[in-house]
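Entry 12.
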Amino acid sequence: MLQDKNTRRNTYLVAETIIVFVLVSLLAVWLWSLDVSTTVHWLLYAPVLLFQGLWFYRFYIVGHEASHKKLFAKNTFLNNFWGSVILLPLMTPITIYRKIHMFHHGFNRKDNHTSALDVFVINNKVAGIKKAYYYIIWYLSIFCGGFFLHSLISVVLFLFIPPSISVKISSAFKGWTMKDQLQSILLFAIGVLFHLSVYWLMGKDIYLYTLGYPMLSFAWVLSLLVYIFHYDTTIGNEVRYNVRSVKYVPVISWILMNFNEHATHHQYPNIPWYELPEKSTPLPQEYSNYNQNTWSFVRAILAQLKGPNVISEHEHHHS
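Predicted 3D structure (tokens):
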């Protein structure tokens, strides 16, 4: 019965995700066709473009469910097929997504060096100029699409670096095989072909308003939001507690499929997205006291303005 509910809910989810994408794309193209000044055009299009970026984040989170094999829990083929279809606009193979994301769950903020994006460990003393450099890197990562580029580089490494070499770059590649790599290259090529097909068949302007500009918006949205649930949280071996949740936000929580219940997801990764609110689980008190320093979605974003944690090799971050 549970799996029947899973199939039913996620069939609707996939249909909704594709239909809204098509409708907002048509709206964007219609706005492009209006005979108005450039200023008026961008004033009208800006909120639509923001929504497109958020909706591409929806693609990312549908892919997240597929990476956990929860999109169609009863059928592995359907799970991977529809996960791959939804990820086509992002040109991200589900195979790579799953590998990187499982590493994140297994080693999230385990120590200062492992899966802790806001910690920069340097060999020598933390000096003013060097610290300023890392602050600039951090602000570019959060507010200028840097984390999107970080993700893109990770995908390229998985695609084209031989597995025997890639595992030396990061332990996230452990168990990555040539078969996995070839399958990923095929999925990536299909994603690129999808973009090229829209460009060739519908022209440059329609491509820009349906995929091109939305990808840029997504790069900004992803970079801004992707680390708000882990920024400046605890570091240590209890990796499933190094996280925070934020309260339900109308519209945003619908788009992001209850991703605001992030602490619950990390504690119980097998809970499907639609059950997260009703199965919301608080962190143990000692972790909640530090990590749950805000329940506000906006404050969690703005908190990142505080900057990264730049430490020398011999310093220790809170745990």
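Annotation: The mean pLDDT is 91. The radius of gyration is 20 Å.
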